[in-house]
Amino acid sequence: MKIKVIIPNSGMSRKTLDEREIMLKGYAAADTEISVDCIDGGPESIESSYDEVLAGPHILRKVTQAEKDGYDAIIIYCGSDPAVAAARELVKIPVIGPGKLSKMVALDMGYRFSVLTVLPTCIARDTEAVYEKGFDMTRLASVRSIGIPVSDVREDMDATFNALYQAGRLCVEKDGAHCVVLSCLGMAGMGERLSEALGVPVLDPAPLAVQYAQMLGTLGISQSREAYPAIGEKIHI
């Protein structure tokens, strides 16, 4: 099986992309091929609706090429799930949005969940995203920020973990969360350690997305054309 991972951040070095690839292969089956690329233009990170719109066309070009290159599934590697709906209209292979997926799992593992996001300015967007994706808002315990921008999340992993732990502790002890969802894919790899520290399931979108992509590919399941109709020939990218 071949999975294409598209990071909607521009300007990432090949060394950094290779490191992400190695990390994600650790979550996959031995015979699964994972290829990681970032977009060729657009924003350096997704931290606003404006960033999502700028990244969209670049994401869709990568999505179209991935299907042509014979990939079995695509992961748009961002908790905001930018351009996922549009990508599903473009291609036949499954397109995974890690943000929605991780919240779906959180709702199955507990009754109320919290979201840990990057900046305070992202709290409103992450709150609204729960509503827009069709989840029951009464099951959202809180959205809290760790005060670290996307581009700096992996610069000092100990500092990031400490910020996640402090915010996550408030989610559990003050807000009544049964599960915690990491909103940024830059937080990948911290879920298991945070779960042990907080005593509740912490949903890490990165391994979830890889495992889900494998499952859909193995079962031959993709997005419904009733929900995501093919766009025809009117748009060219």
Notes on the protein architecture:
- It is a single chain.
- This protein is α/β, with parallel strands linked by helices and 237 residues long.
- The chain has two domains: 108 residues, 3-Layer(aba) Sandwich (Rossmann fold); 106 residues, Rossmann fold (3-Layer(aba) Sandwich).
- The protein has eight helices and eight strands; from the N terminus they run βαβαβαβαβαβαβαβα.
- A four-stranded parallel sheet has the order 2-1-3-4, with helices on both faces.
- The chain is globular and about 50 Å long.
- The model has no long low-confidence stretch (mean pLDDT 95).
Mean pLDDT: 95
Contiguous uncertain segments of 5+ residues = none
Counted by DSSP, the helix tally is 8
Shape: globular
Percent helix: 40-55%
Order of helices and strands: EHEHEHEHEHEHEHEH
Order of the strands making up the biggest sheet: 2-1-3-4
Q: What structural category arises from helix and sheet content?
A: alpha/beta
- Tally of discrete structural domains: 2
Quaternary status: single chain
